[in-house]
C-alpha cells in the first residue's frame, strides 16, 4: 500500500531524513515514534506530497508518487491528514466541516456520508454545533471524520492527540484505532508518546536524527530491540556494564550470571545489560546488595531507584507491601529470562534467537 525506499529529505543543504525505508500493508496502522525534531513530520509531509524528496522513492499502491525531481500533487494522492491543532474551520458547523472535502458530491449523498461519520465518531446530534462549543476530544473526532469523508486510501495523523490531556489522549487513541480498524483504513501516525504508539500501532518505528532505527510489530520492538537506543526509547529500564565471560555467562557489579540466550560476541567483550524494573526483585538471601535511593509511588506499585556498591543504578518495581526507605540496603535477585544485551561499543543488540 505504502512503500518508502531509501528516502532522503533536505531543507537546503540540511539533510533531515536519510536512508528511510518503510512498508505499510493495506489496513495496517503504522506509527513513527521519536523525539522532537527527528524528522517525523517531514516524512509525513513527503508522503502527502507537500515536501519533495532528494533521494529514494515513495510508492502508493505500487505507483511511484515521489522521486527526486518528480512529485504527484497532494490532491491527486487520495491521502487524508489529521493535524495536532485540529485545524477545523471556525465559521463552519461540525457537519459543514466534515462535508468540506466532499463538496462536489450531490447534497443528499453528502448528508448521508456526514450522518454515518457522525455516528462513527459518536457525535450524533452535534452536526449543527460550531467547533468552539466542542471539547478538545470532540474537535479531534470531527477532524478525523473530516479527513475520512472523501474515503482516502491512506490517512496520515500528525501528533493528533498531543494537545489533549493525558487521560483523554489514551482513550481517544483506543477509540480512533477501533474506528480505523472497523473501516479498514490504512494509517500512519507520528507521535513522541510511547503509550499512544503502543495502543495504536500494528507496526511501530523508532526514529532518531532522521533515520528509522527499527520498524516492526510493537511486541518485537519491545522484546527484540535492535539497539540500546530503541530499547531505551520504548521502555523504562537501567543499563549496567557487564563483560561476556564466554560459555554463556556474564559478570559485572551485578554478579556472575548464566544467560538464557546465545550472544554473538567473543569472550571479554564489554556489554550493556538492560534491566527493566520488573526484572529486579528483592531477595533477602541474595549476596547482590543495593541501597535504596528513592521510592516512587505509582498507584499500583512502587518504583525503587537503587544503587549498587560500585555506583551503578537499577530500577525495580515492587508491590505496595514492599516498603523500603532511602538509605536502606536490600538483597536483590535478577530475572534474566528476557535480558537484553547490547555491545557497549556500538549499542547493537548482541543476542541471538532464544534457544
Ligand atoms: N521548512 C523547514 N525548513 C527548514 N528546516 C526545517 C523545516 N521543517 C523542519 N525543519 C527541520 O527539520 C528537522 C526535522 O523536523 P520535523 O518537523 O520533521 O521533526 P519532528 O520529528 O516532526 O519534530 P516535532 O516532534 O518537534 O514536530 C528539524 O531540525 C527542523 O528544524
TrEMBL record:
The keyword ATP-binding applies. The keyword ATP-binding applies. Residues 2-234 form the ABC transporter domain. It holds the Pfam family ABC_tran. InterPro entries: AAA+_ATPase (IPR003593), ABC_SmlMolc_Importer (IPR050093), ABC_transporter-like_ATP-bd (IPR003439), ABC_transporter-like_CS (IPR017871), ABC_transpr_FbpC (IPR015853), Mo/tungstate-bd_C_term_dom (IPR008995), P-loop_NTPase (IPR027417), Transp-assoc_OB_typ2 (IPR013611). It comes from the Bacteria. GO terms for molecular function: ATP binding. Gene3D superfamilies: P-loop containing nucleotide triphosphate hydrolases. PROSITE patterns: ABC_TRANSPORTER_1, ABC_TRANSPORTER_2. Coiled coil: none annotated. This is ABC transporter ATP-binding protein.
Amino acid at each position: 500500500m505504502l512503500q518508502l525506499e531509501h528516502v532522503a529529505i533536505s531543507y537546503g543543504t540540511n539533510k533531515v531524513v536519510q536512508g528511510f525505508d518503510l512498508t505499510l500493508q493495506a489496513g495496517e496502522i503504522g506509527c513513527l515514534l521519536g523525539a522532537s525534531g527527528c524528522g517525523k513530520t517531514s516524512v509525513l509531509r513527503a508522503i502527502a506530497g507537500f515536501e519533495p524528496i532528494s533521494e529514494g522513492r515513495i510508492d502508493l499502491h505500487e505507483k511511484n508518487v515521489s522521486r527526486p525531481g518528480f512529485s504527484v500533487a497532494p490532491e491527486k494522492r487520495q491521502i487524508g491528514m489529521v493535524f495536532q491543532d485540529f485545524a477545523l474551520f471556525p465559521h463552519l458547523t461540525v457537519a459543514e466541516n466534515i462535508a468540506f472535502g466532499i463538496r462536489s458530491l450531490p447534497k443528499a449523498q453528502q448528508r448521508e456520508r456526514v450522518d454515518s461519520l457522525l455516528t462513527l465518531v459518536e457525535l450524533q446530534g452535534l452536526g449543527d454545533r460550531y467547533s468552539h462549543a466542542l471539547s478538545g476530544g470532540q474537535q479531534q473526532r470531527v477532524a478525523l471524520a473530516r479527513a475520512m469523508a472523501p474515503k482516502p486510501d491512506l490517512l496520515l495523523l500528525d501528533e493528533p492527540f498531543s494537545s489533549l490531556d493525558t487521560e483523554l489522549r489514551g482513550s481517544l487513541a483506543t477509540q480512533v484505532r477501533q474506528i480505523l480498524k472497523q473501516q479498514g483504513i490504512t494509517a500512519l501516525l507520528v507521535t513522541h508518546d510511547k503509550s499512544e504508539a503502543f495502543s495504536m500501532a500494528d507496526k511501530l518505528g523508532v526514529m532518531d536524527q532522521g533515520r528509522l532505527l527499527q520498524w516492526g510489530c510493537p511486541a518485537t520492538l519491545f522484546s527484540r530491540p535492535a539497539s540500546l537506543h530503541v530499547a531505551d526509547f520504548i521502555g523504562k529500564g537501567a543499563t549496567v556494564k557487564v563483560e561476556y565471560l564466554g560459555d554463556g555467562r556474564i559478570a559485572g557489579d551485578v554478579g556472575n550470571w548464566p544467560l538464557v540466550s546465545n550472544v554473538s560476541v567473543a569472550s571479554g567483550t564489554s556489554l550493556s545489560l538492560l534491566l527493566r524494573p520488573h526484572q529486579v526483585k528483592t531477595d533477602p538471601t541474595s549476596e547482590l546488595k543495593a541501597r535504596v535511593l528513592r521510592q516512587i509511588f505509582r498507584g499500583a506499585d512502587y518504583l525503587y531507584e537503587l544503587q549498587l556498591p560500585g555506583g551503578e543504578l537499577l530500577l525495580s518495581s515492587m508491590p505496595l507491601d514492599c516498603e523500603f526507605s532511602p538509605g536502606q540496603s536490600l538483597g536483590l535477585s535478577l530475572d534474566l529470562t528476557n535480558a537484553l544485551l547490547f555491545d557497549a561499543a556500538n549499542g547493537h543488540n548482541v543476542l541471538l534467537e532464544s534457544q
